Every structure is written in structure tokens, then in C-alpha cells.
């Protein structure tokens, strides 16, 4: 599991808002 992957996932969710 990549750390950057999870971080990018959060940013993606916020951006989707």
C-alpha cells in the first residue's frame, strides 16, 4: 500500500465535493 496513494485519495474526495 502506497502512502501517497491514500493521500491522493483524500484529495480526490475533497475535490469531488
TrEMBL record:
A Pfam cross-reference name: PKHD_C
All copies of domain PKHD-type hydroxylase C-terminal, residue ranges: 4-16
InterPro entries, alphabetized: PKHD_C (IPR041097)
Protein name (Swiss-Prot/TrEMBL): PKHD-type hydroxylase C-terminal domain-containing protein
Amino acid at each position: 500500500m502506497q502512502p501517497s496513494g491514500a493521500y491522493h485519495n483524500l484529495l480526490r474526495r475533497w475535490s469531488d465535493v
